[in-house]
Amino acid sequence: MSVLVVPEVLPGGALAASSAGLLAAAAAVGEPVALIACSADAAEAASAAAADLGAVRVLTAPTPGDALTVPVVDALAAAVAREQPELVLASHAVESRDALARLAARLRMPLATDVVGVERDDLGVVARHSALGGAFAVTGAPTFGPLLATLRPGAVEGRLPAQPLVRTELEITASGARAGRIESFAETAAPSSRPELRGAAAVVAGGRGVGSREDFALVERLADVLGAAVGASRAAVDAGYVPSSAQVGQTGVTVSPRLYVALGISGAIQHRAGMQTAGVIVAVDKNPDAPIFDIADFGIVGDLFTVVPQLISALEAHKK
Amino acid sequence: MKIVVLIKEVPDTWGERRLSLETGLVERAASAPVLDEIDERAVEAALAFADAHPGTEVAVVAMAPASAVATIRKALAMGATSALHVVDDALRGADLLLTAEVLAAAIRRVGFDLVLAGNLSTDGGGGVVPAMVAEMLDAPQLTGLSTLEITDDAVSGDRVSDAGTMRVSAPLPAVVSITEAMPEGRFTTFKGIMAAKKKPFETVDAGDLGVAPEDAATARYIMLSVAERPPRQAGTKIVDEGDAGERLAAFLLAEGVA
Ligand SMILES: Cc1cc2nc3c(=O)[nH]c(=O)nc-3n(C[C@H](O)[C@H](O)[C@H](O)COP(=O)(O)OP(=O)(O)OC[C@H]3O[C@@H](n4cnc5c(N)ncnc54)[C@H](O)[C@@H]3O)c2cc1C
Ligand SMILES: Nc1ncnc2c1ncn2[C@@H]1O[C@H](COP(=O)(O)O)[C@@H](O)[C@H]1O
Predict the structure, then answer these.
(1) What is the pLDDT of residues A185-232, one digit of tens each?
(2) How far is B195 from chain A (nearest CA, A)?
(3) A110/B235 Cβ within 8 A
(4) Cis omega (within 30 of 0) on the bond before B173?
(5) CATH code of the region B2-219
(6) What are the CA-CA distances from residue B87 to residues A168, B81, B203 (Å)?
(7) Structural domain boundaries of chain B?
(8) Among partner residues A101, A134, A142, which is closest to B221 by beta-carbon distance?
(9) Strands B9-11 and B33-35
(10) Which residues contact A52 (CB under 8 A, 6 or more apart)?
């Protein structure tokens, strides 16, 4: 049986970083077939990239540039009709999530969101979730028939062996469903050399205690020494120290790195919901009663502006 | 202009939230139920437009247990015009598809030019209900907007992703979901709370909306198992005496994470 995988094609034409994990996760259930729905000129490179990440076949569908979501849903509906997959798997990122949501509504198919893994049992596909900030592990399944699911980025690692590219152009009938329009797109200034927050092995996060956008550079310096991604609390995002995409927590990104360093973050319950499944948690906070210490493996009651520079020097000295 | 705001009752994130190990559903008794913060922002966005455009109707729609009346009234106390509450025991544990079917039917009953919702509910919602509802209403969807401009016949805003910022627009009628970058909900006043008691408040069940929760022909997503993970323990805590940075470096190296 096949699994239809929908890697996200970035505006520039490259596949999103989540794509390798998506294909690897799909392979636990069946043969991964990728759907590449993007502008015609990006399709060739994106198809090759999907095969490189292990797609046994690639279906392509050109989508007009400025219509939001609906062309991808039309392509998905055609791909589902052709492949009759047991599972359709896409990233839980906004664009893919919208597409699967509309597909589920259109085909009246059950949808599981933010899954952290998929597998198969005697009866069919089973999806795994990590609920309420990782406090509960939940599994679910469709009562019958195929399942649509969105996979939490970074939840499944690994990369399948590359496959030779076998590409088929899909015949699409436009549904005529009314769509929003993309007026313009402004790429985030400098694509950072740091790892992406989702799926990063280490995260260094700063909170309100960092105090200013300028001082946030200290958080970034430590992140670079540790090869870590940069995260933040909602208070730091609200104060404008960092873009909202760095927010960790309940309403931000959920991370589960090997190392999480919280600097000037009190550890409100909504922040902890996004990071408490990390392997090792380290916290530096002036307030000895900050709740972050309740879950920290190593907590320092102190001023981050003295502790962090010393930590950076010690780590750099060790590297030499 | 008629704006429908989708509002959800969720367990307060400030309390301890639990899933029942028997049913897999959120235990309503474990923490106080509240109007989701993100939906308060959606109500605020609708009211801000209504303040500047007299004659705007703001109807709130919720699918929630009978006990959610107070939560729904809060949106009326903030200033919404009317409420539709869908209550039905058969909807307990409804999956996303059924939830969207019910909400779409409820919105159709109320009538709409614009539907506003939160981008993501805080009780484990998947952030998909608004887009599902849009498909069912054959309306365009603009999800995850961090800014919002509403005119008589169109809606537009910015949508921020890791890759960049997208400017999107749609003609009305449309479905929009907003992020927490939008302003917080206004406080309720005593006057607002009193006024809310006299506002239209309709309660319906799935049958009234023409939705069959137990339709055997439609596949549903169901929970198979729930397990609780042991809570995390605190480890070493030290007070900086001038060498905490060095001690932390030693700890990270010993743990093999630096
Ligand atoms: C529905 C809802 C959703 C939410 N979602 C999220 C979410 O996704 N993510 C999130 O993070 N929050 C979220 N919040 C907000 C959350 O409740 C907290 O307000 C927020 O996490 C606080 O951020 P903070 O720890 O940076 O700030 P604070 O709580 O103000 O903590 C700052 C800390 O810095 C310390 N400090 C100050 N100066 C120094 C110094 N020089 N050195 C060392 N320490 C110092 C202080 O002692 C303090 O403990 C949500 C809230 C709600 C209601
Ligand atoms: N049961 C419900 N009743 C009313 N609105 C809902 C319900 N479930 C979801 N919504 C709306 O959809 C948004 C996103 O929810 P979700 O898809 O569950 O993350 C919420 O912020 C609400 O606006």
Answers:
(1) 888 766 578 888 998 999 999 999 999 999 999 999 999 999 999 999
(2) 32
(3) no
(4) yes
(5) 3.40.50.620
(6) 48, 20, 7
(7) 2-219
(8) A142
(9) antiparallel
(10) A162, A163
